[in-house]
Design goal:
Bound molecules: arginine
CATH architecture of one domain: 2-Layer Sandwich
Helix content: 40-55%
CATH topology of one domain: Gyrase A, domain 2
Structural class: alpha/beta
Radius of gyration: 28 Å
Oligomer: single chain
């Protein structure tokens, strides 16, 4: 039931269509005020009357019925109460029937969304800075899929550039296949750092690195075998983290994939008169748009990050015919995205408007012991391991007899990391604190997971029940919970509209809190049969919706904790 549409269609208001009206309708801050409200000041300009007068007129013309049971005009707001029994019955029936599909939709049918996220760099450590792009991107994949879109999750690997020539030189001088296989990314980082130190003393190393990079490009076997080894090691290492975080990709087409796809772009830019020479380099001038030029080719003819992104965007449009193509990348790259989006626009690609830079803020660590020092990076792997270990010790002290403690600790620890990273509006810089994300009494993932386990334990302790739609007289605790449950579908949709998984974390906390108030104040087992069945239906619905919410974030629930 779309109440907003329903109310809008019943409002006798000339000059505005139902969709417009419905978009003005809000949910008041508390249920006492009503279930929906129309702020009439939004209509004042169109109707040329005061909000108070509009509210009064609309109220007088509104016919209450089985769906909307009450309407009142207060201070320029028109407040509606829905038939709460009817709403509760329909809602709980739907949640219990749809289960893990509750909240899903087919609004995305026949539309494809490409999501470029995580996009790690080969041979570079996977550090805490990659946490946001990885979990935001992965959650957006799940959210869009849930809404019926076809989703292509893309890891646009950083697998191209002179640094790979340096790495080969360093490898040949100071490492071996055995060492790389054993020490993995640590070894690659070690020799890369060593290369830079040594090259300061002996600049000829840089020439050699350039030579090797050229060899990779020219398809030389030895150079490419080494590059493939570095790539394999990196993907194996990050693969472990992806597995822990429930992250998957549909494509690993990285920067080098576009090596043979850039020339047509350069030709097109040139034939459209967009390419200019500047100090030997080829650029697209963006001065008119208040931006520095977009570099397309260096003086030596080699391509740049932007060139590969142009080729990638065109490739994705041709291959997937996307409805939207999202780039989940830190705000430090704002300019880069603005520039290459503009270049595509200037090339006459009308779909350039469908490219979205989903920018997010920086993550730093509060815990000094693990923070970045002397150029040392904080590995994501270590953050997850440390959080899981802490979760394990909290569980040990709170619930020493819990079965499967390791499994629970893993779900709680990784969940806390993911939830913590998704909790704030994504553009905010966040300071990550293990103690904070693991606080069982705070606004955290363990709190939500604990609520699911609590629901589960009630259900386990009670007999099977069949909800037949009987709704007894409700207390405000019960109706507040119902009204939270009823918001889920809209929250999922708006989190997709705004590319904000944080709407879902916020919602999960609100729902858990409404549930816990209900749980503390309303006796379930031992109540008269009809009340008991209704309350059990609330418990089961809460478990379902919280589980669905956490699943969209990539977080597992546990039956006991
Ligand atoms: N590898 C890049 C980095 O670490 C991110 C790539 C983002 N995606 C893109 N299509 N540019 O900064």
């Amino acid at each position: 039931m779309d109440y907003k549409q329903y109310i809008a269609s019943k409002l006798n208001c000339t000059g505005l269509n139902v969709d417009e009206l419905s978009s003005f309708i809000e949910v008041p801050p508390t249920n006492e005020l009503g279930d929906f409200a129309l702020p009439c000041f939004k209509l004042a300009k169109i109707l040329r009357k005061s909000p108070v007068a509009i509210a009064e007129d609309l109220k007088n013309a509104f016919q209450v019925d089985d769906v909307i049971s009450q309407v009142s005009a207060i201070n320029g707001y028109l407040n509606f109460k829905v038939n709460r029994t009817g709403k509760t019955k329909t809602l709980l029936t739907e949640i219990l029937y749809k289960g893990n599909l509750y909240g899903s939709s087919d609004i995305g049918l026949n539309k494809t969304v490409c999501i470029d996220f995580s996009s790690v760099n080969i041979a570079k450590p996977f550090h805490i800075g990659h946490l946001s792009t990885t979990v935001i991107g992965s959650s957006l994949c799940k959210i869009f899929r849930f809404l019926g879109y076809k989703v292509v999750g893309i890891n646009h690997l950083g697998d191209y550039g002179t640094q790979f020539g340096k790495l080969i030189v360093a490898f040949k001088k100071w490492s071996s296949v055995e060492a790389v296989n054993e020490l993995r990314l640590k070894e690659l980082t070690r020799i890369y750092v060593k290369f830079h130190d040594e090259a300061e003393l002996d600049p000829s190393l840089d020439d050699e690195a350039r030579r090797y990079f050229k060899l990779i490009e020219d398809g030389d076997k030895e150079a490419n075998d080494l590059f493939e080894l570095f790539k394999k090691i990196t993907l194996e290492e990050v693969g472990k983290i992806y597995a822990q975080l429930n992250v998957t990709f549909d494509s690993y087409a990285g920067e080098s994939f576009y090596n043979d796809k850039m020339q047509p772009i350069v030709d097109e830019l040139s034939s459209k008169g967009l390419l200019k020479k500047s100090e030997g380099a080829s650029i697209v001038d963006l001065e008119e748009y208040g931006m520095p030029p977009c570099l397309i080719l260096k003086a030596d003819g080699s391509s740049l990050y932007a060139t590969r992104d142009l080729a990638a965007a065109v490739y994705r449009k041709n291959t997937y015919d996307f409805y939207k193509c999202l780039y989940v990348v830190a705000y430090q790259q704002n300019l880069h995205f603005k520039q290459f989006f503009k270049v595509l626009d200037l090339m006459g690609k009308d779909w350039a408007n469908d490219l979205v830079h989903v920018a997010y803020g920086m993550v730093s660590l509060e815990d000094g012991a693990m923070s970045t020092r002397h150029g040392k990076v904080v590995l994501l792997e270590d953050v997850i391991a440390k959080t899981v270990e802490k979760a394990r010790s909290v569980i040990e002290s709170k619930n020493p007899d819990l079965p499967d403690k390791d499994k629970v600790a893993k779900a709680v620890g990784t969940g806390a990391v993911i939830f913590g990273a998704l909790q704030n509006n994504k553009i905010k810089d966040i300071v990550f604190s293990i103690d904070k994300v693991l606080n069982f009494d705070g606004e955290t993932c363990p709190y939500v997971q604990y609520t699911v386990a609590r629901c589960n334990s009630v259900l386990e302790r009670s007999d099977n029940f069949t909800f037949k739609g009987n709704i007894p007289e409700m207390t405000s605790f019960e109706y507040d919970l119902v009204s939270e449950l009823g918001k889920f579908s809209d929250v999922v949709k708006s989190s997709a509209d705004k590319y904000e998984p944080s709407f879902i974390t916020r919602y999960a906390l609100d729902l858990a809190s409404a549930f816990n108030k209900f749980y503390i104040n309303c006796k379930i087992i031992g109540s008269p049969e009809d009340i008991k069945v209704f309350r059990l239906a609330l418990v089961k619905s809460t478990k379902t919706v919280l589980t669905n919410a956490l699943t969209l974030l990539g977080i597992e629930t546990v039956e006991k904790m």
